[in-house]
C-alpha cells in the first residue's frame, strides 16, 4: 500500500502541560529483547500541539503526526481518550 499521506497515530500520557498550546506526551511501547526474548517497555516523549489547552497532567491522549509546527512539535492532539482523576 502507498505510504504517502499516512499519518502515525500514537496513544500516550500527558507528562507536561506547562507550555501554552503545547503538551509533552509519553508513549510506551513493548519491544522484544533480541537475546532473552522478554518484552521490555520503551518510552519516548513527543511534543504535541494542543490548540484549546484542554489537556491536563495525566490525561491519556491520542496524537496524530502532522507537518512541522515548530522545531520540536510534529504532532497534534487528536482527542482526549481518558481524563486524569
From TrEMBL:
Gene Ontology biological process terms, A to Z: translation
InterPro entries documented for this protein: NA-bd_OB-fold, Ribosomal_uS17, Ribosomal_uS17_bact/chlr, Ribosomal_uS17_CS
Signal sequence coordinates: none
CDD domains found in the cross-reference section: Ribosomal_uS17 (cd00364)
Keywords in alphabetical order: Ribonucleoprotein, Ribosomal protein, RNA-binding, rRNA-binding
Keyword Repressor belongs to the record: no
Recorded GO CC terms: cytosolic small ribosomal subunit
Quaternary structure and partners: Part of the 30S ribosomal subunit.
Protein name as it appears in the record: Small ribosomal subunit protein uS17
Source organism of the structure: Desulfamplus magnetovallimortis
